[in-house]
C-alpha cells in the first residue's frame, strides 16, 4: 500500500509541474495577444463609419422572429399597442423615425452601447432602464415590467437592428446627435409665426398633432412631459434644425433653418403647457445638469 501511494505521488509531481508550465504559457499567450485583440476591436469600431441594419424582411422564423416583429409593432404603434403604459398620443417612432432606423434619431446599434452611465439618472442604466425612462417621460406613462413579453420584444427588436455592431462600442459614428449647444435666446413670437407657417399643417394649429407618426402632438395633454429629453431647448432646437420639416412646408425645406429660427420654434413649442413629471427634481443627482434643464433640481440646492 505504501509503495502504491509513493507511485501516485511520483506521478503527481511531474503532472503538477506540467500544469504549472502550461499555466505559465497560457499567461504568456494572454499577455502577448491581449493588446492585439484590443487593437483589432478598436480598428473594427473605427472602420464602422456607417451602418445599415437588416430589413424586417430578413427576420428569422420562429419565436425569436415573432418577438422581433412584436417589438417593431410596439415601436410604431406604442400608444395603441400598450395603452396602459402610454399616457399620450405618441409612439417611439414619433421621435425615432422608421422604428429607429431612419436618420432623425437612430436607434441602430443602441444595444451595443448598453449598459451605460447616464448623467441624468446618476447611475449605470441597462437598455431596459433606458426604455422605461422613455415610457415615463416621452410617453408620459408607466414603465413596462422588466420580464414582460413586451419588454423582451422591444429588446429583441433593438438587438436585431444592432446586428453585427460590436458590443461595448462607445460611440456610433453614423449617429448625429440632435443637439444645439449654445442655442441663441429664442424669440417666441417669431417662433409662433414660423410654426403656423411651416409646422401647423402636420402638428395642428393647437399643437395637438394629427397622428403619432404623421404629425405628433407637440404640447398639451397628449404630448411628452417636462421631464423628456425633448423638453430641453438644446435638444428640441437641434432636432428641429436637423429634421424639420420632413417635406417642404410654407417655403421651408428640411435642414434649411438657421440656429435662431430653430431656437425660436423650439422656444415657442416649449413655452406651451405640457404634462408635469413628478420625479423631475431627482434628475442629475450629482449636480452636473445642463444649463437648459427647465425645472429645479434637488442637487442644485445642495
UniProtKB/TrEMBL annotation:
Q: Quick one: where's region Disordered? A: 274-302
Task: Cite the SUPFAM superfamilies for this sequence.
Answer: Cytochrome c
What the entry lists under InterPro entries is as follows: Cyt_c-like_dom (IPR009056), Cyt_c-like_dom_sf (IPR036909), Cytochrome_c-type_DH (IPR051459)
The answer on whether this UniProt entry bears the keyword Heme reads: yes
* Pfam families documented for this protein: Cytochrom_C (PF00034), SoxA-TsdA_cyt-c (PF21342)
UniProt entry keywords in alphabetical sequence: Heme, Iron, Metal-binding, Signal
Q: Cite the GO molecular-function annotations of the record.
A: electron transfer activity; heme binding; metal ion binding
Q: Does the keyword RNA-binding apply?
A: no
**Composition skew (Basic and acidic residues), residue ranges:** 276-286
Enumerate the spans annotated as Cytochrome c domain.
66-162, 186-273
Q: Which positions make up the signal peptide?
A: 1-19
Which PANTHER family does the record associate with it?
BLL4482 PROTEIN-RELATED, CYTOCHROME C DOMAIN-CONTAINING PROTEIN
Q: What is this protein called?
A: C cytochrome
Species of origin: Neobacillus mesonae
